[in-house]
Design brief:
The structure holds 2 protein chains of 2 kinds. Chain A is of the alpha/beta class. In chain A, about 25% of the residues lie in helices and about 15% in strands. Chain A has 20 helices and 32 strands. A 6-stranded mixed beta sheet of chain A has the order 26-28-27-32-25-31. The two termini of chain A are about 45 Å apart. By secondary structure, chain B is an alpha+beta fold. Chain B has 2 domains: about 5-80 and about 145-215, Alpha-Beta Plaits, CATH 3.30.70.20; about 85-140 and about 225-255, Alpha-Beta Plaits. Helices cover about 30% and strands about 20% of the residues of chain B. In chain B, the strands form 4 sheets. Chain B has a 4-stranded mixed beta sheet with strand order 8-1-10-9. The longest helix of chain B is centred in the C-terminal third of the chain and has 24 residues, at about 240-260. Chain B is globular and about 55 Å long. Chain B starts with a strand and ends in a 5-residue tail after the last helix. The chains are: A alpha/beta, B alpha+beta. The interface of A and B includes residues 15 and 665 of A.
């Protein structure tokens, strides 16, 4: 099922494999507000209006539970379906128990398991207890009837049933299905819960840890997986460890707070090793300077006191709080939400360093038509950067494969690799701190930074640092199992420990031999984390005796003679029955009831911030935990003024904010102009013909684009009334060979409750034929 | 005979245009200046084959009984088995060349005089005369890549293996398998290029829908009879006369064609 993704257009190589699967008899379901090039290949196309995904998938799950299509053994053996929850936990009027209206957040006291005398969760393996997760989930989902879901999504009930039946058939032990999703899923105020519905759906059907199963996040850029692994986001440090909060004043307090505990000897509780990963990371950062007596330089790490996500940063820039910005390979003037505000925010910076292949709309924000550069005081530095084929290094894909790339050509002119730029920046800062001092230069001047004496820093040394060393011997470590919390090991990212060992650069391997189980693991092609395990949670593909549920496509199986697992790297080598299968959770089971999220342990439909209708499920209109920005240029539109649903998306022919593609004549030939896609009925109502210029407006601003009048958008019947939806590619800007208005002039400054990713995918607009 | 061919299994096409761009990259052709989209029903650009565009992806949006279909078809030279364009080419040695080994038909630009006979007699009206350079232009079947034993650029670039290069009889076998696969799914596919023009073409299309869905595809392509007539009539008089007569006739037809071209899209 491809949902919240248009894989054929935006991840065409992934679609190569979908095509092969279909040749082998796989069925493709495309769920999308618009009939796309992916939908053209699908066996079933189910239209849902933007912002109604949770209702749709909750509806599928409700159908699956009611029609007994779920995999009961899998639920009992591998998920928390049987766990008993605090009887005080509840849900009413769209809110879970523990909501603080003033603070707009939940206290999670009631979102907890009932514990036995050993402090371990109590369970009912018959799944009958009214307080067991399964019964609570069944009750929660029972409200998502076919009629309700159809009324919220605009998808006809017959189609919902067809999808539920087809997808639900993979609840059978020998069948599996995979979900492919992308930004259509994540870029909503309920984005994280959107993803949760897929995880829960797959768990209900026993599709996690099995061949052909799982959830595939198709990442938005070729190496964003690498960038999140290396923690370029503010809330994590490398390897998905938590950024210290201001409350975690000491290393001991930090480790106590963030290291999960379990009293169950059968739970591997893998995050119990957090101290080893944190201390090894600190040793990688500060080397010999990091010692036990100075908490391994823990005090050098910044402590979080507030959200520093993209929207918050630009709001702070607009307010003059943030004075300078280094913008590497990003073009927020086109790609950010609410770009009219974000471009204004750039004007208020004292300085901007733009590192990119071209002078983008961000680097050249002061040259936007209509902007008076003389009034702008920002000092702008343009550093030309090398493209991905012009430098050596690795890229990590959606399958967690770290694939090494060699340098194919030299960068043109003065363009440099990011590594060279960062290395020079560090060295200059260090020199300046030495000669001029500073408020607190230690975290920078004490960095462990040894990347060779050459003109170009040695990226292999960086990769080795990331893998990590046994500091007592100076040898590269073979796996994170060897990391210690006493300062004797270092690792720049525990997940990548085993990627560059004494045996060499594992990421550079190119042996296409498949594993003996022949399910397409290719264990010797590059290297994937963790420890080259290709399918995570793979012990859940077996019963508790280690026998595969689907012998014809086994992932791992227990070999009793050799007393070991064969096939993929097992997700824990313990013999069957010794440890539970979902080792990254302290309880050892996958969570249908997921209390780790900010907005609820079960997914609930809330409308987007700008919604065409009242929430049909409850009186809680929007996600109760999201931050509402109320500054200048943060206006929100209502359906009375902006009656049309709008969404943004990407196309095959253009890439992100367009620098690379809108400067390529072959691609400009294919898509030279900004356009907006709309239904025939909407076009007729507005007197618009295919190819006319139209004005699209929201509360934030307006753009002008060519109208594409198509059958691929149809109005949605929501609660008996017809609502139109339009779609806009967001690749265009005022620079380049092909120019066009930026769709993100229209999108709002509001983000997801957990990740703060902006709600680019569902907002309100109006359109009219452009005169003159 | 090791005649090469290409399967174009259009059900697998996702209209990504990798073929269109790969062809330009290999043949060092520039991008065309375009505006918006060339045709309704999709994202086609440019409007037709040209001296700058040897392969072109077309989009067909069809709605029937509430079911929506979006079909894609990549349009280019059919690389006929018995090419009329080669027969029509009046110069000697032929500018429109048929490679002995692979059967690839391509324009030898050094010899080409841009007379337009190839276009006139092509049953699919594919070649486009570059009036500035005075040369005929069309898909070359990447004869230069084939000479080094590598597949055409478009087939190499296609991510879903909808374009597959191989021996003609292998390709025909694959086409029939693809047709069976589509029939099993309840569709009404058509193989185009197997028997057209009698001896067929080397581009073998498997279209997932009947030809009515592709109005720009010529249903019963035929080579104009007068091409054969002139060949028969003038043969006894030797190559020179044959050439002179053909050139004369063609120049006359060219004038006629120039008028027709103004209204006929390719």
């Amino acid at each position: 099922m491809i949902i919240g993704s248009n894989a054929a257009e935006n991840h065409p190589i992934s679609f190569r494999w979908v095509t092969k699967a279909m040749e082998n008899g796989a069925k493709l379901i495309s769920v999308d507000p618009r009939f796309t090039r992916t939908s053209s290949r699908a066996d079933i196309y189910a239209p849902i209006r933007s912002g109604s995904d949770i209702a749709f998938v909750n509806g599928l799950m409700n159908y699956i539970i009611h029609n007994n299509l779920y995999n009961k053994d899998y639920l009992v053996d591998h998920t928390n379906a049987s766990f008993l929850v605090n009887p005080k936990f509840g849900f009413s009027n769209g809110l879970f128990t523990g909501y603080d209206t003033a603070k707009r957040m939940y206290a999670k006291d009631t979102w907890q398991y009932q514990l036995d005398e050993n402090g371990n969760p109590q369970k009912d393996p018959t799944l009958q207890d009214p307080n067991c997760v399964f019964q609570l989930l069944k009750k929660h989902l029972s409200r998502y009837t076919l009629e309700k879901v159809s009324s919220i999504t605009g998808c006809p009930t017959e189609l919902i049933v067809e999808v539920a039946k087809t997808y639900g058939a993979t609840g059978a032990k020998d069948k599996s299905a995979t979900i492919m999703y992308a930004m259509g899923t994540t870029q909503h105020t309920v984005g994280t819960q959107n993803v949760r519905t897929y995880a829960m759906l797959q768990l209900l059907l026993g599709n996690v840890g099995v061949a052909g199963g799982g959830i595939n996040a198709l990442r938005g850029e070729s190496n964003v997986q690498g960038s999140t692994d290396m923690a370029l986001l503010f809330h994590i440090i490398p390897g998905y460890l938590k950024t210290p909060r201001v409350e975690n004043q000491t290393l001991a307090e930090y480790l106590e707070k963030w290291t999960p505990k379990s009293n169950d000897p059968k739970s591997a509780n893998w995050w119990q090793h957090t101290p080893k990963y944190v201390v090894s990371l600190l040793k990688a950062f500060w080397g010999d300077k990091a010692q036990k007596d100075n908490e391994f330089c823990y005090q050098y790490l910044p402590k979080l006191s507030a959200n520093c996500d993209h929207i918050a940063m630009f709001e702070a820039m607009y307010d003059g709080v943030i004075k300078g910005l280094i913008c590497m390979g990003q073009n927020p003037a086109v790609a950010g939400p609410n770009v009219l505000k974000e471009r204004k925010a750039l004007e208020r910076l004292d300085w901007l360093v733009a590192v990119d292949l071209w002078e983008t709309e961000t680097a050249g924000f002061w040259a936007e038509p209509g902007v008076d550069a003389k009034k702008i005081k920002t000092e702008v530095f343009m550093l030309p950067a090398a493209a991905s084929m012009e430098k050596e290094g690795s890229i990590t894909n959606s399958g967690r494969w770290m694939q090494w790339r060699y340098q194919a050509v030299h960068p043109p002119g003065n363009a440099k690799s990011d590594l060279w730029i960062l290395d020079r920046l560090y060295k200059e800062l260090k020199k300046l701190y030495a000669s001029e001092g500073g408020a607190f230069p230690d975290p920078i001047v004490n960095l462990n930074w040894n990347y060779g004496a050459g003109e170009e820093p040695d990226v292999h040394l960086v990769a080795k640092d990331i893998n990590g060393y046994d500091l007592t011997t100076g040898k590269l470590l073979p796996s994170f199992a060897k990391l210690n919390d006493d300062g004797t090991t270092s690792s720049g990212n525990w997940l990548y420990c085993a990627s560059y060992t004494e045996d060499g650069n594992m990421a550079a391997r190119r042996d296409p031999t498949d594993a003996p189980n022949k399910i397409g693991l290719y264990p010797k092609w590059s290297w994937c984390w963790p420890v080259n395990r290709r399918i995570i949670y793979n012990r859940a593909s077996c019963d508790l005796q280690g026998n595969p549920y689907a012998p014809h496509k086994w992932v791992v199986k227990w070999n009793p003679e050799e007393k070991k697992w064969i096939g993929d790297v097992p997700d824990g080598g313990w013999p069957p029955g010794e440890k539970y299968s979902f080792i990254m959770k302290p309880e050892g089971y996958a969570r249908l009831f997921g209390f780790g999220l900010a907005d609820g342990p079960f997914p609930e439909h809330y409308e987007p911030l700008e919604a065409p209708v009242k929430n049909a499920m409850t009186s809680q209109q929007t996600n109760p935990v999201i931050k509402i920005w109320t500054g200048e240029m943060d206006d929100i539109g209502t359906v009375e003024k902006f009656p049309i649903i709008a969404t943004t998306y990407r196309v095959t022919e253009h890439w992100q904010a367009g620098q690379m593609t809108r400067n390529n004549p072959w691609l400009v030939e294919l898509m030279p102009d900004m356009f907006v896609e709309m239904s025939k009925s909407l076009a007729q109502a507005k007197g618009v013909k295919n190819g006319d210029r139209v004005r699209v407006s929201t509360a934030r601003g307006h753009i002008v684009a060519y109208a594409v009048v198509t059958s691929r958008f149809k109005p949605f019947r929501l609660n008996g009334k017809a609502y139109e939806q339009i779609g806009l590619p967001w690749h265009f800007g005022f620079k380049g060979l092909a120019k066009g208005d930026s769709a993100n002039s229209l999108t709002p400054h509001v983000g997801d409750a957990n990740t703060n990713i902006p709600e680019y995918k569902a907002f309100l607009c109006d359109i009219e034929k452009e005169v003159g | 005979m090791a005649e090469k061919a290409m399967l174009l299994d259009m059900e697998k096409c996702i209209a990504c245009r990798a073929c269109q761009v790969a062809c330009k990259q290999w043949n060092e052709l520039p991008g065309e200046k375009t505006t918006f989209f060339a045709a309704a029903g999709g994202y086609q650009n440019p409007i037709g084959l040209s001296p700058k565009t040897y392969t072109l992806v077309k989009f067909y949006e069809v709605e029937e009984q509430n079911k929506l279909k979006w079909l894609f078809r990549v349009h280019r030279c059919m690389q006929c088995v018995d090419p009329a364009c080669v027969k029509a080419c009046p110069v000697s040695p032929k500018a429109m060349t048929r490679d002995e080994k692979t059967g690839a038909i391509y324009v030898n630009r050094e010899l080409c005089i841009g007379c337009g006979a190839c276009r006139e007699y092509c049953p699919f009206t594919v070649p486009v005369i570059d009036t500035e350079a005075g040369k005929s232009t069309k898909c070359t079947f990447c004869f230069d890549r084939l000479a080094d034993g590598i597949e055409p650029a478009c087939a190499k670039a296609c991510p879903t293996d909808c374009l597959v290069f191989g021996e003609r009889d292998q390709i025909l076998e694959m086409a029939h398998k693809a047709k069976a696969r589509l029939e099993k799914k309840g569709r009404h596919p058509v193989i185009y290029g197997e028997k057209e023009l009698g001896t067929g073409t080397k581009k073998i299309y498997v279209l997932p829908e009947p030809l009515d869905y592709y109005p720009d595809v010529i249903k019963n392509p035929k080579v104009s009879e007068d091409l054969g007539f002139f060949h028969q009539m003038l043969k006894p008089f030797g190559t020179l006369t044959l050439t002179a007569s053909l050139v004369g006739m063609v120049l006359a037809k060219m004038k006629e064609a120039k008028e027709k071209d103004k209204v006929k899209p390719s």
